[in-house]
Amino acid sequence: MTFFPDPIRPSEGRQEDEIRVNPIEADKHGRENQTWGAEPEKGQPRIYGAFLIFIQKLVTLFNKEKEGGELEALSEDSLSARVQDLKQTLQILMESDQSASGKFCAQFSAVWHKLLQGVQALSHTRKSPLVDVDKLKTLLADINHYPPNEDHKLGYYLSEFAGETWLPVPFREILKKLFSDHRINQSHSTLSQWVELISEILQS
User: How far apart are CA 31 and CA 43, in angstroms?
Assistant: First the structure.
């Protein structure tokens, strides 16, 4: 009887090798794709950072040009009007306790910010203002550091826009202290000294 050999079949080991090779190749291609995709990310922060610097320069230039357009008015009547607004605000506090009035506090904060902006803008103009700038800076420094024995001064709360939406207790206590001091000391009170200094500022 004639015996025919069985047909040759692929071994199971080779199938496992083929199966084992495919993931390796896939992983290799995956890493290549990841590496290729990661290269632009290194350049993107540099481009983005340069873009931000460029935008910042444009904004700074725009602000200077805009500020320059407002300096003419600030050097004449606007700054003195803002000083007058501060005087009226302090006089209101001299007449009555405004520590619980969010509207008054918001007005006080707004006047404070306008004055600071006006003084800062003066450094960019050649015209002489109608107020005594040195005395005005002295006044702002006194208000900013009052009272001397508190961690957060009056200027801090005014700079943080204390008012109708935010009326912290320490800020209210400072205003109440100013009012009480004026009732007791009258012409020698802190408020009276500030108002008197404002009169000197406006007379220059």
Answer: 19
Whole-number Å distance between alpha carbons of 140 and 132: 12
Q: Is 59 part of a structural domain of the chain?
A: no
pTM of the predicted protein model: 0.63
In a domain, 51, yes or no: no
> How do residues 157-176 score in pLDDT, each as one tens digit?
999 999 889 999 999 999 99
Q: Number of folded domains in the chain? A: 1
DSSP 101-169: -HHHHHHHHHHHHHHHHHHHHGGG--SPPSS-HHHHHHHHHHHHT-STT-SS-HHHHHHTT-SSS---H
Closest alpha carbon to 136 in 178, 79, 179, 181: 79
In a domain, 86, yes or no: yes
In a domain, 57, yes or no: no
3-class SS of residue 34: helix
Task: Write out the residue range of the structural domain in which residue 119 sits.
Answer: 71-202
pLDDT in tens, 13-51: 555 444 454 555 555 455 545 444 444 455 555 555 555
